[in-house]
User: Fold this.
Amino acid sequence: MTNRTLVIRPFTVADQPPTRALILAGLADHFGVLDETMNPDLDDIAGNYLRPGSTFVVADLATEIVGCGALVTNAPGTGRLVRMSVSRHHRGHGIGRALVNHLLDAARTRGDRRAVVETNDDWSDAIGLYLACGFKHYDHRDGEVHLDLELT
Assistant:
């Protein structure tokens, strides 16, 4: 990352097009191909993720959205991190870790005692990020790795 300042801020409706494109590009990077119809929630991020008890943030670097992530309620006292993504050109510079830490702070603030996340079992960069942030494996099934972190 350059000396530009990274700002993690709440998602706004104006962020819809670049945030959708960012997430889809990340999926295409990983899977090689992408069927956009498999991600209908991204057509209306505000409608799907800006609900009471949810947080959706973007990482802004010099007015460019370079990352995003959401915290949703998984169960009482448990938050789930979803839609985590960092642009290809900005990976490996701490943006993902900053997003995870921001969302974990939000989970603690709202009183969650546990955070969970899941990803494909072949997505080693994502798994490595979550492990580096303190998450632990608790399940592995159907091609997915499930990780959790106690927030107490």
Observations:
- The mean pLDDT is 94.
- The chain has one domain: 6-150.
- Helices lie at 16-31, 45-49, 95-109, 124-132.
